[in-house]
């Protein structure tokens, strides 16, 4: 059994090592070496997350399962792929409970979450992820709010359950309001969906926007670029939703998105200037 496990592990590790050597001469080699490293570490940490979730559930602390797994992934991935996140106003991440919203650029956002994900928080995810081995098992065991976008009734039920978790257990929720990855090469945002804002108002908790600078200088899938770098992150002050009603959702979305876009452009410009000065 041990020999079989070593054989299974030797292939991805050997491939990553070979691509790393090629990466000294070719940008494409570096790209695929870092991509494969991220996926290999993701599967490894998801397996750890399954065990951690079970253990923490047994001792009544499953609310920190996603936090502890996210930190493990970040601590492994960032040194290997050469990433650093500079976080401004990090203290606002201690707001509990809250609905955290952030822009969604690419698959690399999972490393960003590893850096900033707060304790006592759960992510939302599309329901199809639930059936991916290891990753889906971990997400299900750790309390992920799965959303079936094709089934409105099921989606509403999932949000109702999230509201009960927020009110009853002070469990925060992390949502990407754009609904999908943007893959923008410049600091822009897709239109925001309403779910996160309805959730915050109905639960009576603040919204905490988290803005990640455009990082196409680090990862650009279309150009097969994946280089080391520094990515700026700014946590904005919590937005109080007490006293707001359903009729206020559109105005809340508009003001939140405008502020996030403004900050996105500012911290992205700062990051570009810092890169050029090095």
TrEMBL record:
GO terms for biological process: phosphatidic acid biosynthetic process. Pfam families: Acyltransferase. GO terms for molecular function: 1-acylglycerol-3-phosphate O-acyltransferase activity. The chain crosses the membrane at residues 6-26, 38-59. It catalyses: a 1-acyl-sn-glycero-3-phosphate + an acyl-CoA = a 1,2-diacyl-sn-glycero-3-phosphate + CoA. Keywords: Acyltransferase, Lipid biosynthesis, Lipid metabolism, Membrane, Phospholipid biosynthesis, Phospholipid metabolism, Transferase, Transmembrane, Transmembrane helix. It comes from the Eukaryota. Its EC number is 2.3.1.51. Residues 98-215 form the Phospholipid/glycerol acyltransferase domain. The keyword Metal-binding does not apply. GO terms for cellular component: endoplasmic reticulum; membrane. The HXXXXD motif is essential for acyltransferase activity and may constitute the binding site for the phosphate moiety of the glycerol-3-phosphate. Belongs to the 1-acyl-sn-glycerol-3-phosphate acyltransferase family. This is 1-acyl-sn-glycerol-3-phosphate acyltransferase. It comes from Tuber magnatum (white Piedmont truffle). The lineage of its organism: Eukaryota, Fungi, Dikarya, Ascomycota, Pezizomycotina.
């Amino acid at each position: 059994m041990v020999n079989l496990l070593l054989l299974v592990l030797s292939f991805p590790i050997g491939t990553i090592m070979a691509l790393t050597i090629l990466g000294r001469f070719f940008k494409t080699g570096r790209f695929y070496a870092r991509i494969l490293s991220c996926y290999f570490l993701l599967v490894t940490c998801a397996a750890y997350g399954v065990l951690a979730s079970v253990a923490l559930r047994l001792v009544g602390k499953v609310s920190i399962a996603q936090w502890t797994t996210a930190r493990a992934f970040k601590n492994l991935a960032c040194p290997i792929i050469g990433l650093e996140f500079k976080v401004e106003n990090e203290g606002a991440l201690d707001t509990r409970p809250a609905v955290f919203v952030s822009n969604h650029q690419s698959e690399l956002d999972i490393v960003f979450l590893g850096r900033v994900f707060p304790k006592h928080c759960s992510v939302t995810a599309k329901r199809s992820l639930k059936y991916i081995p290891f990753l889906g098992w971990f997400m299900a065991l750790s309390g992920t709010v799965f959303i079936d976008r094709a089934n409105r009734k099921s989606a509403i039920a999932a949000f109702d359950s999230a509201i009960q978790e927020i009110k009853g257990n002070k469990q925060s929720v992390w949502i990407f309001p754009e609904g999908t990855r943007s893959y923008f090469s410049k600091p822009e945002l897709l239109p925001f969906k309403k779910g996160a804002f309805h959730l915050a108002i109905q639960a009576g908790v603040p919204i905490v926007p988290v803005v990640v600078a455009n990082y196409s200088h680090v990862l650009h899938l279309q150009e097969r670029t994946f280089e080391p770098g520094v990515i700026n992150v700014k946590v904005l002050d919590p937005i109080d939703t007490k006293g707001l009603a359903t009729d206020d959702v559109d105005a809340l979305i508009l003001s939140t998105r405008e502020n996030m876009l403004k900050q996105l452009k500012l911290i992205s410009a700062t990051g570009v200037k810092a890169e050029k000065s090095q």
